[in-house]
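Lab notebook: predicted structure, single chain.

Context: the supervisor wants predicted structures on file for every construct in the current expression panel, including those that have not yet been purified. This is the next one on the list. No modifications to the sequence; it matches the entry in the shared construct table.
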Amino acid sequence: MSNPNVAMVQGLYATFGRADVAAILAVLDPNVDWTVNGRSSDYPVFGNWKTPAGVQDFFKLVAEYENFTEFSPRDIYAADDKVFVLGHYAGKINKTGKSYASDWIHIFTVRNGKVLSFREFNDSHQFVAAYRG
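Prediction complete. Output recorded below exactly as produced.
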């Protein structure tokens, strides 16, 4: 697919795989709205972060709480300024050592070559159960 928004999102996944958070932050709009569906009171990596500095805090939480054994973006679709990515991940919660696995969808809104918003939907129960041990 020769869509520049898709190419940019594919690049984000590559930088995530290298743990290059600075490269991810570089393509975020200053007013980015980053949301992982769920309540932070149930699991600290759920919630909403604003601005690149907030997204940097999100990635610090991911590193603190999660250890991925699989992170697989699988299907990518684009419509207007949206990029939809279906995937799967698995891993362990660092605090408890308990495993999680979930399919997910990521929805990016891209404008002027920057990520304006990100939404993640997953099987939040997997994370909550593993976090609570």
